[in-house]
Design brief:
With 282 residues, the protein is of the alpha/beta class. The protein has seven helices and 15 strands. Helix 2 packs across helix 7. It is elongated, with a radius of gyration of 19 Å.
Length: 282
């Protein structure tokens, strides 16, 4: 799960019932082999992060950490929408969120295990060589940015554009919709509504490989430093669960080579050698 930009699918009644029923059934099962369970809070339909078939990269990393802890991984599925932490971690039905920004409010975070940022996404036949917020072409292009939170606030790339006075040509994409923000922005790149989309890198890379047209992804560089180049990502537990946080730190360290292999498959930068002192947001 990522709380920076990736938007989650709307929570329909049928989906909620399924999530609750499956979660209750899992909670009733004893841990196999008599081992303690590692209870993961996750979205059942948020590729490439997590899926109910456990094929997301966060699912795979959770399995590696569970193995390092000699624990059975169990899932509590809940769509990543408003109230996710309240309905999962804080409700006590699960204990770990696999992907949160290091230093996030409301949770206690582990050492970072990867870094990710925003990327410019564009069709190479329409735009060429765009990689900086200072590019003089940006005010003349139709640029899409994700909006975040209940108040539809600008995401970091939106703020970076606004600080440069680039607003009239910017289209904001709210989190609520029949498809995710990233999917809607990809469709807009397809039909020409957008020339450039600013997206969270893991989701952009996953979706780009599934389009019928070529796309260029370039890290969104901000020479003025108004937008972080990348965010350290960690695991989150309840604020008072220091023991579990420390156990996860040790497990991440033991499993780090295998975790880094998974991250490389998704084009993500590992945070090898990170310490909790580096866990503050950049």
């Amino acid at each position: 799960m990522s709380s920076h930009s990736p938007e989650r699918r709307p929570l329909h009644a049928a989906g909620l019932v399924l999530a609750l029923v499956s979660a209750a059934a899992l909670a009733a099962l004893p841990a196999s082999s008599g081992r303690a369970p590692l209870r993961i809070c996750a979205d059942p339909d948020n590729p490439p992060f997590s899926r109910s078939d456990q094929s997301g990269f966060e699912n795979r990393i959770a399995a590696l950490v569970g193995r390092a802890l000699d624990a059975d991984v169990r899932y509590y599925w809940w769509p990543q929408r408003r109230g996710f932490i309240r309905n999962t971690l804080d409700a006590g039905v699960c204990d770990v969120v696999v992907g949160v920004p290091a230093g996030s409010d409301g949770v206690l975070t582990t050492v970072p295990y990867y870094r990710a940022g925003y990327v410019f996404v564009y069709r190479p036949e329409r735009v060429h060589g765009l990689a900086s917020f200072d590019d003089p072409r940006l005010p003349r292009l139709h640029v899409g940015v994700p909006l975040v939170g209940n108040d539809l606030a600008a995401s970091p790339p939106g703020e970076a554009l606004a600080r440069r006075g680039i607003t009239d040509n910017v289209i904001g994409y709210p989190p609520l919709g029949t498809t995710t923000v990233a999917e809607r922005m990809m469709a807009a790149l397809d039909d020409g509504t957008l020339d450039v989309a600013l997206l969270w890198a893991p989701q952009a890379a996953w979706l780009a490989g599934r389009q019928r047209f070529a796309l260029t992804l370039a890290p969104a560089v901000d020479p003025r430093g108004t937008a972080p180049a990348a965010f350290p990502m960690a695991m989150g537990v309840r604020r008072d669960d220091v023991a579990l946080r420390d156990a996860l730190d040790a497990a991440i360290d033991r499993a780090r080579p295998a975790i880094d292999d998974v991250l490389r498959e998704y084009g993500l930068a590992a945070a090898s050698g990170a310490t909790r002192a580096s866990a503050a947001r950049p």
